[in-house]
Amino acid sequence: MPSNKELSAALDIEGTVPIHSVQLDAMVVLKIVKHCRESIPATVTGQLMGLDVNGVLEVTHSFPMPKNNQDSEDDGSNYQVQMMRCLREVNVDDNSVGWYQSTNMGNFMNQSLIEHQFEFQQALSKSVLIIHDVARSSMGNINLRALRLTPAFMKLYKEKKFTTEALTKAKLTFSNIFEELPITIRNTALLTALLYELETADESVEVSTSHLTTYKSTASAPASKSVLAPSFDVLDLSLDPYVAKNLENLMDTIDDHHQEQGNYAYWQRSVERENKKKAAYLLNRKTENARRAQSGQAPLANEDVDAMFKVPAEPSRLDHLLISGQIDNYCKQINEFAGPTLGKLFAVGELQK
Amino acid sequence: MMDNSSTLHLALPAVHTAASATAPPSLAQPRAFSTSVNPLVFFSILDHYLRRNAGQDRVIGTLLGVRSEDGSEVEIKGCYPVPHLETEDQVEVDMEYHRTMFELHKQVNPKEVIVGWYATGAALNSYSALIHDFYQKEVSSFPAVHLTMDTALTNERLGVKTYISAPVGITSKADNCMFIPIPCDVKYFKAERAGLELLANAKSTESGSTTLLSDMDNLEQSVIEVQKMLERVSEYVDSVLAGTVPANNTVGRYLMDTVSVVPKVDAAEFEKMFNSHLQDLLMVIYLANMTRTQLAVAKRLEKLM
């Protein structure tokens, strides 16, 4: 029986131990994949529940959220409250630890996501966002990422000031908006038994239907009858659709980026203009005053210069950050995709010889 | 000598099909009734079983899914647990909870309907019949499916069995029914397959945990698998040629078919295709890397400002 001190250290009530990795239950992985898969191409979200123990965030359950975001926010939270209440009755950990979102081709960096995650992290310091990329997962490998907003970013977001000086002071660039946490997946003992069973082919197969249930794999290769027979989706050579779509998204984002730059340049120019006007006015005033002093008239009062020439405020650089982050993400995706693809290509080359 | 065997006449529930409208109405054609299950359901059931209250021997819950148009194929896609209480003389099922959860689930997946219920533990007793009757009322015109999962691991197997019930006996009381087993498949999406493989990796480790694989690692694993398969096959072929293993014609023919699937492309053609493909890919990689470098430079410049 762990002592009270150990237990409280494990439960970390004060919330001082930072999370350094995320542990997902096997069921959660499957649930997320199934939910995201069923709702292509719409992006969907859901809640994660679990507990954080000793710096590891254990996620033990998840449920999907209904997609009607056009209705008031209350619908979503009502559903959530009811769901959590029901789950509590069957002894599921009803401690919310984060949320997940599906994405297509990695385009998830937008304002609404950041806002949502920010609110979440404000409310619960130990929360995480899991991103599941549906398009990449169809190529034979599940793609899950666990992200949190960095504390520097959270501070800046709270103040909502994204001027250039603020950014440089906080040393915030697009690469440290999110921090990524490593994910491990855990199976319980019974689950392990289930997996073993799914793998072994049923010996007494092909008996009449009224006596035994048989396990058959849907990819009915006559040689392998087990559910977990190796699938070779990953060895598929169709590269073009993925790369083409990725490039399209990349170009769109670069267009956005260009627009942002344009906005920024416009702002800079307008500031220049205002400053010039201000300087000209001041000069005018000075000469005017000098002339008046010469002719013995009272100098004109120095009006409030600043009120007359309002310098426009610097536009928020948050979009710029997000867009740069997104571009970076796309490029990284292309790289990560290209690695195995080159391997596959050369393997096929060898096969031909 | 008279036959002492007795037969039991079971009325399979009549399935109303559009096709059988042409058949004479007196012949209720019972079609082959089968189910397919998403592995997620198994996982959820096991999870529920692990979280049961102390003293509960078995747990039950509702199965959700879709059925095919004629009602003979049921696909079980999801489930949720329902609290219930089983004592010596009575059984209680929280119907309110069941309804609430179903409403909640419908908001997310409007297409899924109740198709039956599950229970852990292989025993089928009169309580099962009562509960099944209750669920039959929920499912209305189609037979409800009952899925059991043997968590006690008798025979060292997690036996999963699916049943539908048929009335038997003289009086039609609720618990006079017989559970007829029906075949059950496991069905899943391709992406889920990848997830299952990942989980299967974990089963060989001590703590039952594994990390996510990068794409490269995944590819490596698959290639190693293919290599192993090829080795096994070539060993077999060698041993057949050496005469140590009797030749099996079907296997031989199958192997020949498989090997001939590799497309025979003219070498020069292949070179051209290979090179152009390679070039495309390399160009894209180059552009992507350049974009990244550009961004990195911009980042540094911003810092300087």
UniProtKB/TrEMBL annotation, chain A:
- Domain of life, per the record? Eukaryota
Can you cite an annotated GO cellular component? eukaryotic 48S preinitiation complex
- GO terms for biological process, alphabetical: formation of cytoplasmic translation initiation complex
Q: Enumerate the UniProt keywords alphabetically.
A: Cytoplasm, Initiation factor, Protein biosynthesis
Location in or out of the cell = Cytoplasm
Alphabetical list of Gene3D superfamilies matching this protein:
Cytidine Deaminase, domain 2
Q: Does the keyword Cytoplasm apply?
A: yes
What CDD domains has UniProt attached to this entry? MPN_eIF3h
Tell me where in this chain the MPN domain is found: 22-153
State a single Gene Ontology molecular function. translation initiation factor activity
**Main localization category:** cytoplasm
Q: What does this protein do?
A: Component of the eukaryotic translation initiation factor 3 (eIF-3) complex, which is involved in protein synthesis of a specialized repertoire of mRNAs and, together with other initiation factors, stimulates binding of mRNA and methionyl-tRNAi to the 40S ribosome. The eIF-3 complex specifically targets and initiates translation of a subset of mRNAs involved in cell proliferation.
Instruction: Kindly give the HAMAP family that the UniProt entry links to this protein.
Output: eIF3h
Family as reported in the entry's similarity comment: Belongs to the eIF-3 subunit H family.
Q: Quaternary structure per UniProt?
A: Component of the eukaryotic translation initiation factor 3 (eIF-3) complex.
Q: What is this protein called?
A: Eukaryotic translation initiation factor 3 subunit H
Q: What is the lineage of its organism?
A: Eukaryota, Fungi, Fungi incertae sedis, Mucoromycota, Mortierellomycotina
Q: What is the primary gene name for this protein?
A: EIF3H
TrEMBL record, chain B:
Record-linked SMART domains: JAB_MPN (SM00232)
What this protein is called in its record is Eukaryotic translation initiation factor 3 subunit F
**Could you provide one GO biological process annotation from this protein's UniProt record?**
formation of cytoplasmic translation initiation complex
GO MF terms listed in the record are:
metallopeptidase activity; translation initiation factor activity; translation initiation factor binding
Q: Where in the cell is it found?
A: Cytoplasm
* Similarity section: Belongs to the eIF-3 subunit F family.
Would I find Cytoplasm among this entry's keywords?
Answer: yes
The question of whether Protein biosynthesis is a record keyword is answered with yes
Q: Which domain of life is it from?
A: Eukaryota
Read off the InterPro entries from this record. eIF3f, EIF3F/CSN6-like_C, JAMM/MPN+_dom, MPN
Alphabetical GO CC annotations of the entry are: eukaryotic 43S preinitiation complex; eukaryotic 48S preinitiation complex; eukaryotic translation initiation factor 3 complex, eIF3m
Record text on subunit structure and interactions: Component of the eukaryotic translation initiation factor 3 (eIF-3) complex.
Instruction: Provide the MPN domain boundaries.
Output: 35-169
Gene3D superfamilies of this UniProt entry?
Cytidine Deaminase, domain 2
Instruction: Tell me the function of this protein.
Output: Component of the eukaryotic translation initiation factor 3 (eIF-3) complex, which is involved in protein synthesis of a specialized repertoire of mRNAs and, together with other initiation factors, stimulates binding of mRNA and methionyl-tRNAi to the 40S ribosome. The eIF-3 complex specifically targets and initiates translation of a subset of mRNAs involved in cell proliferation.
Name the keywords, alphabetized: Cytoplasm, Initiation factor, Protein biosynthesis
Q: Pfam families this protein is in?
A: JAB (PF01398), MitMem_reg (PF13012)
